[in-house]
TrEMBL record:
It comes from Parambassis ranga. It catalyses: Preferential cleavage: Arg-|-Xaa, Lys-|-Xaa. It is found in: Secreted, Extracellular space. The gene is LOC114438454. Residues 1-16 form the signal peptide. InterPro entries: Peptidase_S1_PA (IPR009003), Peptidase_S1_PA_chymotrypsin (IPR043504), Peptidase_S1A (IPR001314), Serine_Proteases_S1 (IPR050127), Trypsin_dom (IPR001254), TRYPSIN_HIS (IPR018114), TRYPSIN_SER (IPR033116). The keyword DNA-binding does not apply. This is trypsin. Keywords: Disulfide bond, Hydrolase, Protease, Serine protease, Signal. It is an enzyme of class 3 (hydrolase). Its EC number is 3.4.21.4. It comes from the Eukaryota.
Amino acid sequence: MDLPFLLVCILLEVLAVKCQNAAQGRIVNGYEPIPHSITYIVSIQTMDRQHICGGFLINKYWVVTAAHCNIGVNKMMIVAGDHSLSIYEGTEQEMLPQLLVPHPAYNSTTNNNDIMLIKLRAPIYLNSYVSIALLPRQDTSVQEGKMCRVSGWGYTNPEGGTVPSTLRTVKLPIVSTEKCNSSASFNGIITENMLCAGYSIGGKDACQGDSGGPLVCDGRVYGVVSWGKGCADAQFPGVYTAVSKFRRWIDNTIFSYYSRCKKN
Ligand code: ARG
């Protein structure tokens, strides 16, 4: 093989991978919400602006995401007020984290306690593009069949498809832990700190890249996108961190850093 030919081959290879990445859309079988209608969601990115996870604001200093999104405090930036990740819309606010607080009992093998708090270096400016999400009270349960909404910039399907880099959203019913843990499904590996949502026939789901994002029921974030088996497979709903099990931990953590700040 001569050199020019080889170079063309390499270029094509690189382009194919790039195109494939660009084509892998967001949220399986959802739709694009009205831009800036989901104002509490953030995109967690690497310093070179690669989206890795979702998250959501709970006050102007704090973001909630999944513990498995922890890439290190110096490698991460948070973007609020975004819709299209590839277009500058003028509504984005970029913020660096000051501190990451993954749940102390997070277990990367079982995915138990997959939740993390991020404190921002400076407060986010709240406006019509950026707002705060409400959380459920400690131990509030959400009824089986209740329709909830999950949103994110993750894949639209595990293989690919053509979608722009805009936010996507999909409505899903809550699946009882009992059903989710049945032998036909996750067979006992769903803990009390997890929540399942999806259709038994599959088709709609969160997917890779949606992690850390919010599952909202009745206007409160009950779930954090955590894990699954593939995406949108029949019998395998998406698995979320049950936020209501961590309400006390969230409040206590935020309060402890607030008082620490006041003392210094
Ligand atoms: N762990 C994935 C992430 O890092 C999220 C997987 C969610 N999967 C699902 N089928 N709901 O983005």
